[in-house]
Amino acid sequence: MKKILFCIFLLSASMMFAENLKTIQDKKVLRVGVFAEQPPFSTKTSDGYQGFEVELAQALASGIFPDGGGKIEFIGVKASDRITFLQNNTIDLLIATLTKTPEREELIDFSIPYFTVNLAILTRKADKITQLSDLADKTIIVEKNSIAEKYFDSKGYKLVTCNSAMNCYNLLKEGKGDGFVNDNLIVLAYPVIDSSVEIGVKNIGSTDLLGIGVQKGNQELLKIVNSELIKLSKGGFFAKAFNDTLDPFYKGTAEKKYFLLDDLYRMFM
């Protein structure tokens, strides 16, 4: 009981130190957590971060700093620590292919979704994996604290965990596992750059939603993020990103339905 009360105290204390919208606007700095090795969403280069989720953060910042003058500080996160970064006020927004789940909603707040995803398995072509049963009694590679880890652990699979998608891919190449499972939008990137791998199994489990994470209770910031997402959709931001950036990157292998949620956004317009 004492342990539970202590955890509640720590969570409450972290929320008190969240930077609200006015504080962010006064400081003119928006701290955004993104992945460092997750093309085409976000990648750290010698010139800074780039990718779709970086561009999304920049577009949102124009609404958060309507008079200009504000800047974004991008902070690299891993799947295992990204929610903690929000809770301890290291970042203001988390834009890192974050799937919305009931468990995570108890820890942080989510924006309205901007993408949908299913799990998929990246495998070596030589292994000829075409269905999930081909991986029975084999080793699955997953990012720590990911939806994939939870799903395959519940099914009793033998798992190897890693700290980033690129790390997982490298483990697959090294033969440390027989399949790397992640959101389909993430693993689809690897056959584009490596012809020796393929998506052996597509669309595992239920369809999930990706949203932007905000510290629990930071309602003013969440409200403006949601408002700006609606404006961006209405203005064609997501359609343009798909046509100009995402579809060319995936070389036509990504389905538009995962990227364009026009029907959902019409509910808010």
From TrEMBL:
Annotated SMART domains: PBPb (SM00062)
Domain Solute-binding protein family 3/N-terminal: 29-262
Pfam family, one: SBP_bac_3
Record has Lyase as a keyword: no
Keyword Membrane: no
Family listed: Belongs to the bacterial solute-binding protein 3 family.
Signal peptide: 1-18
Protein known as: Polar amino acid ABC uptake transporter substrate binding protein
InterPro entries: Bact_solute-bind_prot3, Solute-binding_3/MltF_N
Gene Ontology biological process terms, A to Z: amino acid transport
GO CC entries: extracellular region; outer membrane-bounded periplasmic space
Gene designation per UniProt: artP_3
Coiled coil: none
Keywords: Signal, Transport
Species in which this protein is naturally found: Campylobacter geochelonis
Superkingdom, taxonomy of origin: Bacteria
